[in-house]
Amino acid sequence: MDLKTLFGRTRFCKAPAITLALSVVFLNGCLDIPDTPDAPPEIEHISVYVEQEGIKDSSILKIFPGDSATLKVSVFPRQYKKDFSFEWKRSGRTLGTGESYVIAPKAPARDIPTLLAVYDPLGGETTVSFNVIANTPPQLDSITSPVAGDTIYGNASMAILFKWYASDKDLNYGDALNYTLVIDSTRYELGTLSDIRQSGFATGEHNVYVIVTDSYGDCDSIAPQKFYVIDTLGRLP
Amino acid sequence: MKHFLILAAFLALTFLACTNSDDALFDASESSTISISAKLSLEKDSISKQGKADTVRPSDTLTFIADVEPSRSIRMQKYYWTLDGEKWAYEFSFRSNIINPGHHKVALVLVDYFGDTLSDTLNVWVGNLPVLDEKAIVPRPGTQQIPPESGVTFAWHAYDPDSIYSMRYRFVLKDASRKTIVDTLIDKPNLEYKKSLDPLTQYSWSVYAFNEIGMAASTNISSSFFTMGAKGESAIVGNIQTSAYASRFSSDSICVSLTILDSSGKVISMDSLAGRTDSILRYTKKPLPPGSYKIAASLPRLTDYIPDTLDIQLLPSEVHNAETIYLNDIVPPTIRSIPLADTLDFADTLRFFVTDGGSALSLDNIQINFNGRRITEGTSFKKDTLTIALNDSPESVSYRLLTLTATDLSGNKNKKSFYIRPTQDWFECNGETTLYDEEILEVFIHDTNPYGFEPDSFYFDIFKNDQAAVYKATGDSHSFKVTYGAFPAVVNHVRSGIRYTNGIIKWKEWTVSRVFTTRSEGE
Q1: Cβ B139–A196 below 8 Å, yes or no?
Q2: What is the spatial distance between Cα B337 and Cα B387, in angstroms, rounded to a whole number?
Q3: B372 — alpha (psi -120 to 50), left (phi > 0) or beta?
Q4: B140–A193 C-beta distance less than 8 A
Q5: B274 has which bridge partners?
Q6: Distance between alpha carbon B30 and the CA centroid of its chain, in Å?
Q7: CB of B319 within 8 Å of any CB in chain A?
C-alpha cells in the first residue's frame, strides 16, 4: 500500500488496525454504529522543527548560522512515530537518516536538508518539504547624528538630522532592514529610512535610540544616547 | 386475501376509468423556471441600495434578502443561508452582522420540490477601520530649515487593527502655491523625496490611509514644513482673509494692498494681491534679513473694510509663518428712498438707493417685504438703484409697510421700513385755486369713497383759527361760498375733510393763491 496516497490516513499493519477497530466496536457497540473494521487510523500530521540553543522553532525554521542546530521530526499521534523511518534529503541527495539531523555550525546551504522522506513498515512513503532559514541578526552600528552628548543650537522648530548605520550579513540574500527611531519615548516607524530630519525639541536634554529589525524578525539596538538642545533663536519678549 | 386484492384492483380501475389521463401528462407551457437571488444591504443605507458584495465593519448590521422567482410561495423542500459553508439562518430575509474580520461568503440555498438545489452567493469583507497616527510623523508640523537641495524624507505610522489587511497610502506634496508636486499611492508608511526644493518655501503634505479593501482611516495627516535659505536669510509667509470669505452670497474680486515696513518705518515693499473674497490670499516675502517688520494690509477701493497691521520679529534662517491678516467689513449697506422720505405715496414703481462700501450688491443681497409678504417679481437692481413695482391695489384703506433688508458679503445687515401712503381719492373737493380780488369762492366737498361708508360730518379748515368748521352731513356733499377776504395771504393753506360714521376721517390739503389787484391802505 502506497502511504503517499493515503497521507493523512496512513494504513498500517492490518493486525493492530483490526484490533483497534474491534476495540472501538466493543467499547462503543452499544452507542453508535461502528466504523468499518479495516478503517486505518489517521495520522494527523508529520512536521519538521528546528532546535537551537534549547529553543524550538516550528514556524519558519530559523537558525543562527554560527551555531549548530538540530532538525527534528514530529508525528501526531506520537505513538506511530516509532513505526516510521526517515531520510533527510536535499536535491535528491540523502544527507542523513533518523528522527533528527544535526546542522553543523556555518554549514553551507548544500548541507542543509529541504525534504524529509517518511517510510512506513510496508514501504509506503510520504514527504515533507521545508526550508531552513539561516539568518544572521542585524546589527545597529552607531547613531552618527546627533552623536552621543552633542549640543545643538537652534530652537524647537529647527530640523535636526538623525542618522544611523546598521549592518546585516544577509542583505545580499533578500534580507531587508527596518528601523524604529525612538526620541524621548516617541516611536517613529521609519521603514527602510536610515536618516530623517525632525523638529520639536525644546531646550534641554533629550535621548534617542534606534531599533533595527530584519525581515525575519531579528533585531538589534543600542543604549539610548543623550543630546542637548539650547535655544539660541528664542523670540524676544 | 386473493379476493381482497382483486376487489382493490377492480375499484382502482373503476376510479381511474373516470379520470382523464391526459391531465397527468407534463405540459411544458404550464411550467415555470425557478430562480433565486440573494442580496444584501447595509442597514444605514437605504434598503434600495442592495448589492451582491460589500465592505463592512463588524458593528454594521446587514440585511440579507432572498428573492425567489416566480414567488416565495412555490412548493419547496427547504431553504437556508450559509456563512462560509456553515448553516447560518433559516429566514428568507433577516438582519445580522458578521463580527469576524476577513472575507466571508454568504450563500442562499434553496431545495425545490423536486429536490433540485439552487444557490446564490454574496461576498462580504469585514474589517475595522485602519488607524493612522497623526502625531508621530516626520517631519513634525512646522519644521524649519529643511535643506532644499538634499530632498526630504517623510514617515508616519498606521496599521490595520485586524492585522489581516495590508495598508495603502495616498501621499500628496504641494508647494507654496498649492501646486501638486507629488500625488502617489504607496504601500509603505514612508517616502523619500529626492528632488531639490525651493529655498525659503513652505511645503504642505498630506497622507490618507486605506486598507486593501478600501476602508479609510478616520483621520489623515495634513502638515507642512519650511525649507532653508542661504545662510542667515529669512522669509515671511502668510495669509490674508476677508470677512466675506464664507459669504453665503457670491464672491467679489478684490485687490489687497500689502505693505511691508522695517523697524524704522521704511517701506520695504508694496504689493497688490489680486484675488477673490471667497479665497485666502497667500503672500511670501523673501529673502529678508532677520529683524522686526510691520505688515499692513488694506482694500483701498472697498472703504467698508478696516485695514489691519501685523508686527513680526523675524529670526535668522526662519521662514516666519505669520498670523492670518483679517480684513473685516463691519459697515452694513445703506438704504434710502429716492425722495429721501420714510413715508411714500403709493405708486406703481418705487425706487431706492441701496449702496455698500464693501461689496457690489445684487438682488440676491436684498430682501423686499411688502405688507409682510416677500416679493421678488417686478424688482430690479442696477447701479445701486433698486426698483420695485408694487403689484397691489392703490385703493387700500390704510398705510402699508414696505421693508427692505440688505445684507453685504460680510453678513452686515441693514433693515429699513417705509410707510406707503394710500393715494385713493375718498372725496372730491377744491384743488389748487387762484383767487382774484372781489371774487367769491365756492368751497365744496363731495364724497366718493368706494367702500360705501356713510359721511357723518364735513370739515373745512379755511379760516386759520385752528378750528375747522363742521357741518353735519345730510347727504354725500356740501358747499358754501366764501369771499376773497377770507384769504388774506398770498398762499393760503386749506384743508377739507370727511368724518364717516365708522370713525374714519380723511383729509385733503389744497391751497388758495391770492392775486391782489388792488391793495388797501395799511397792507
Answers
A1: yes
A2: 10
A3: left
A4: no
A5: B255
A6: 60
A7: no
Q: Is the dihedral of CA B335, B338, B339, B343 positive or negative?
A: negative
| Chain B: closest CA distance from residue A158 (Å) | 5
The x, y and z cell numbers of residue B374, run together, are 416677500
Best residue in B140, B187, B193 for a mutation probing chain A (most A CBs within 10 Å): B140
Contacts of B48 (CB under 8 A, 6+ apart): none
Three-class DSSP category at B27: coil
Q: Are A175 and A216 contacting, i.e. CB atoms less than 8 angstroms apart? A: yes
Residues of chain A that touch chain B, judged by Cβ-Cβ distance less than 8 Å: 154-155, 157-159, 186-193, 195-200, 233, 235-236
Give exposure, A14-29, as e/b (b: 16+ Cβ within 10 Å).
eeebeebbeeeeeeee
Lookup: cell for B95: 438582519
| Set of cell numbers at residue B203 | 511645503
Residues of B in contact with A199 (CB under 8 A): 139-140, 142-144
Type of residue at B442 = E
Report residue B240 as a C-alpha cell: 490674508
Amino acid at A12: F
pLDDT tens digits, chain B, 523 residues: what are they?
556 666 666 655 555 555 555 566 666 666 778 899 999 998 665 566 889 999 999 999 999 999 998 888 888 899 999 999 999 999 999 999 999 999 999 999 999 888 899 999 999 999 999 999 998 999 999 999 999 998 899 999 999 999 999 999 999 999 988 899 999 999 999 999 999 999 999 999 999 999 999 999 999 999 999 999 988 899 999 999 999 888 878 788 899 999 999 999 999 999 999 999 888 999 999 999 999 999 999 999 899 999 999 999 998 888 998 999 999 999 999 999 876 778 777 777 788 999 999 888 989 999 999 888 898 888 999 988 999 887 766 556 578 889 999 999 999 999 999 988 776 678 888 877 888 888 888 898 989 887 788 999 999 887 766 688 899 999 999 999 988 888 888 888 888 899 999 998 888 888 888 888 765 443 3
The interface pTM score, or ipTM, of the predicted complex is 0.71
A123: distance to nearest CA of chain B, Å? 38
Round to whole Å and give the CA distance between B498 and B470. 9
* B151 at A interface, C-beta within 8 A: no
